[in-house]
Queue: 2 jobs
Job 1
Amino acid sequence: ATVASSVNKCLPQIISLVNKAVELVLADGRIFYIGSGTSGRLGIVDASECLPTFGIGDKIIGIIAGGDAAIRNSQEFAEDSAEDAWKDLMKFNVSKKDIVIGISASGSTPYVLGGLSDCKKMGVNTGCITCNKESQISLNSDFPIEVVVGPEYITGSSRMKAGTAQKMILNMISSSVMIKLGRVLDNKMIDMKLSNNKLYDRAVRILESILNIKKEDAEELIKKYKNIRIAIENHKEKK
């Protein structure tokens, strides 16, 4: 119960980061999440959901210390390299058009700190999500988000309250950015990728609601265009 109130206190910081991220993405920039362990996995989960949810897959990118193998299994000492994050970012040709958001509960993870420090040196925009005030990672971030959740119930873990807060903030960042980019109409996901029957059925219901048409007509539009936004645009043109 205390996590949500802790996140609420960070709203001004979250808004500042979101506004900058939108500005950069509109200018052909990208959002990168970097982290290790739980923090890295949370970034990858949030980034990977943007394609099926919002139909956009190359604007929010998650990177974890230790590479893809670390998504499933812990990679020993992967987080201890201060040089590897920049190497990983350079695989994507990160530039001044982008923003790199470091995720670290402690605010001191060498992988994240090194990556943000290198970004600052190269003029790349930086942000962070951390659970300690005035950490080294915050000091290396143009747009720090410091969500202080207090001690974990189980001492020595940072994947519980801290992880929950980080996930909530990541949801807020990606959802807000996508709404501001126009990937949502009202509260409807009109750019979602129709990759299974459940999403096809949802698309039909969305069209029924937005266009005020019968189910069979919505089904025909989805069958023809396989995209909610395109179906809406073509239906309105014909009217």
Job 2
Amino acid sequence: SKDLCMIEHIPEMIDAGIDSFKIEGRMKTALYVATVARTYRKAIDACLESKEAYEAILPWCREEISKCTYRQFTTGFYFGRPDENTQIYDSNTYEQEYIYLGIVEDAEAAQENAGSIVSITQRNKFSVGETIEIMKPDGTNVPVTVEAMYTDDGESVDSAPHPKQVLWIKLSEAAKKYDLLRCKSV
């Protein structure tokens, strides 16, 4: 089945009396859950503020949701009985625009510039010199350069090839504890 996506129908759901939204998280990455929960929170808040605020933020919401999707979207049973268009019939069901790198577990200010040195338990491969993105809880996405990378023992490395390896990363911009790091899929 396609993934349920109701980001474009927040006003109808609120008008229907729905006051609690469940975000699917089972068998999804932390990046998916964080992106979807953050995006729906911003959409709901904007909708409660005004129709204009919701319509203004909707393009950003669509873009953010598309960055973490794994399947195409459907509205499920909300607008009637699903048909053949709610299913994926080919074998290529997964689409991924961004890759989850890790969550900032510790952060300290870098002395030379406004950047920071952060600790993460790395989830996917990336390298020194790459541009990655800091996902802030408030919806801000900050592009940063990976300036240097060190193992937990202080050894300098050029890339992070081992999943679940603890790394210290020097970033060109400041990051804080609990920010998520992601990079564009190639």
